[in-house]
Amino acid sequence: MAGRVLITGFEPFGGARTNCTEMVVRTIEAERLTDEITGSFDVRTAILPVTDSEGPAMLERAIKEHAPDGVIALGEAETRTNVSVERVALNLKDYRIPDNAGRTCRDEPIAVEGDDAYFAALPVHTVCEAVQSEGVPCRLSRDAGLFLCNQIMYEVLKRVRVEGVLRYGGFLHLPLVREQSGEKRAVFKSNDSDRGIKMSLDGSEGSVRGPIEPTVPTREMARAVLAAAAVAHLMPA
Q: Cα–Cα distance between 98 and 79 in angstroms, integer?
């Protein structure tokens, strides 16, 4: 099936030296994985700034430049050990840490007159199975948090659900990759002290409550992301 998908990652943030999504995107760019996994459709990439204004603006520029059929956006969730296929994007910004421009949002809408939430425009169960087929653990997740990951997911889905610019779109949170082993990471807790949930830097719920050792190499994670993109691209129009 001909066509084009845009895969986005993020620059490092929160004081980290690396971001696994940037590493995965660069691997997709550098290695000849695309033809092997995706077949006949084209893959384009972009790295987004982790700022309230420039992240969405870069996404918009990339969509206009590449004119993709759909977007698979990636975010890093360093407390998880599995890929997470996010189900819902909320029209809410409530940053637990400042973005890379030093800005912190509190209970602000992404779009003042926008819908409260959008569901992923992906066959989420099938996408999850596609990632697992590459030997990478994967599960479904409720939402993408309230930081830039959620904001980008919302912007992608608005272009599917409202504007009709895209045919499909969704968001995958990735765990750290093996090449990030040993890198020190800050971990932030939820404001809900009763639950004591350990949070990712992006503000989404983590699935691990202590230091973890990344096990999946970047190249294998890149293959899993492309497998997910291939499944999404085959969705009926």
A: 19
Asked if 171 and 164 touch (Cβ cutoff 8 Å), the reply is no
How far does Cα 156 stand from its chain's mean position? 11
Q: How many CB atoms lie within 10 A of CB 178?
A: 15
Question: Residue 233 catalytic?
Answer: no
168-174 and 83-90 strand pairing: antiparallel
Tokens representing residue 216 in the block: 């999946």
Which of 11, 149, 155, 205 is flagged as catalytic? 149
Active-site position among 76, 78, 86, 205? 86
157 closest CA partner among 203, 191, 222, 110: 110
Residue 35 pLDDT more than 70? no
Q: What is the mean pLDDT of residues 62-75?
A: 97
Question: Which is the catalytic residue, given 78, 173, 205, 233?
Answer: 173
- For residues 168 and 41, the answer to whether their CB atoms sit within 8 Å is no
pLDDT in tens, 74-126: 999 999 999 999 999 999 999 999 999 999 999 999 999 999 999 999 999 99
State the Cα–Cα distance between residues 171 and 190, nearest whole angstrom: 22
Instruction: Examine the residue annotation and report whether 173 is marked as an active-site residue of this protein.
Output: yes
Residue-wise pLDDT for 183-209, tens only, equals 866 655 433 323 333 344 444 444 434
Question: Is 76 annotated as catalytic?
Answer: no
Pairing relationship of beta strands 42-48 and 4-10 according to DSSP bridges: parallel
